[in-house]
Design a protein that fits this description.
Helix content is 71%, strand content 0%. The chain is built from six helices and no strands. The radius of gyration is 14 Å and the shape is globular.
Length: 128
């Protein structure tokens, strides 16, 4: 299977679950013990707006390889007619780019790289 041939929305579907799992584990490790508080805290990481900002920050810091940027751009430029009502299409496309990259890296068995990306994200927003 050539991972680059997989539909980017499928990659994003996978990446979304991995991304959210990292965030949930991180928040639990901060000591938050209430599910409602965990859900509230997670929004600053898992919303499309937050994901789009993280992607922009990572791109500005030249964090990605050329290969990774190709995956992000392919997902960001994918012709999608729908997006969530709570954000604009550009924000949604950027968030999809980040999620697709994480899905891609997972299928490529690059957990080390996912760890680096998620550590950057989790350390850039402090929840105390």
């Amino acid at each position: 299977m050539n991972v680059l041939e997989i539909n980017v929305l499928v990659l994003a579907y996978l990446g979304d679950t991995i991304y959210e799992n990292y965030v949930r584990k991180y928040l639990i490790q901060t000591g938050i013990g209430n599910v409602n508080d965990l859900q509230t805290a997670s929004i600053s990481y898992v919303s499309a707006k937050a994901q789009a900002k993280f992607l922009t920050d990572l791109v500005e810091k030249n964090f990605f390889t050329e290969e990774e940027l190709l995956v992000v751009k392919r997902a960001r430029n994918y012709k999608s007619r729908s997006h969530p009502k709570n954000c604009d299409i550009l924000t949604y496309k950027h968030a999809t780019g980040l999620e697709a990259l994480i899905g891609y890296l997972d299928l490529m068995q690059r957990r080390d790289r996912i760890d680096e990306i998620m550590n950057f994200i989790l350390e850039s927003t402090s929840i105390k």
